[in-house]
Amino acid sequence: MFSEVLRSGRRVTSGPLSLCAQIHGEGAVQGTLRFGVSIGKRVAPSAVVRNRVKRLLRAALRQCIPGAAEHIEARRITSVVLLWKVAPSRASDIGLRDVLPHVENAVRQLITVCRPLP
Questions:
Q1: Average pLDDT for residues 107-113, to the nearest whole number?
Q2: DSSP 8-state assignment for residue 108
Q3: φ and ψ at 39, to 5 degrees?
Q4: Is 93 helix (H, G, I), strand (E, B) or coil?
Q5: Tens digit of pLDDT for each residue in 17-53?
Q6: What is the 8-class DSSP label of residue 12?
Q7: In the β-sheet with 17-23, what is the strand arrangement from edge to edge?
Q8: pLDDT (tens digit, 9 = 90+) per residue, 61-98?
Q9: Which residue among 13, 52, 95, 116 has the highest number of C-beta atoms inside a 10 angstrom radius?
Q10: Nearest residue to 14 (alpha-carbon basis) of 118, 117, 108, 111
Q11: How far apart are CA 104 and CA 45, in angstroms?
Q12: What is the Cα gyration radius of the chain?
C-alpha cells in the first residue's frame, strides 16, 4: 500500500507533514479510507519518539476525517499516507496541539487540489 500511494499519489505538504493520497484505487471498497503513517529512523532515532508521533498523526487524522468525509468520498480518495519529517528530541516535547493543525491544513489542501469525480 505505502509504495503505490507514495509513487503515484497526489502529495501536499504542511510544515513538517507530507500527505500522499491515492485516488480511486483498484479494488478499493467505496466509502472506506485506508491510511498509514510513517516517520523514518533518520528523522527520529528513538523508537519511543517515532511511536508517539505515529499515534498523534493517527489521532489527528481521525479527528479531521469526519468533517471532510463528504469531500473525500466525492473525490474518491481511497488511501492516505502521512509522512512526518521533523522529530522532537524527547517524546514529551510533542503533542496533539502540535500535529493537528498540520494535518487539518494538509487535508484541506488535498481537498482543494483534487477535483470531485463524476
A1: 92
A2: H
A3: -145, 125
A4: helix
A5: 999 998 875 555 566 888 999 999 999 999 999 999 9
A6: E
A7: 10-14, 17-23, 77-84, 34-38
A8: 999 998 888 888 888 888 999 999 998 999 999 999 99
A9: 52
A10: 108
A11: 26
A12: 14
Which residue's entry shows cell 488511501? 79
Cβ proximity of 98 and 54 under 8 Å: no
Pinpoint the alpha helices (H) of the chain: 2-8, 47-74, 96-113
Residues in the chain: 118
- Gap between the terminal Cα atoms of the chain: 25
Q: Is the pTM of this model over 0.85?
A: yes
For strands 77-84 and 17-23, give the pairing.
Answer: antiparallel
Average pLDDT for the chain: 89
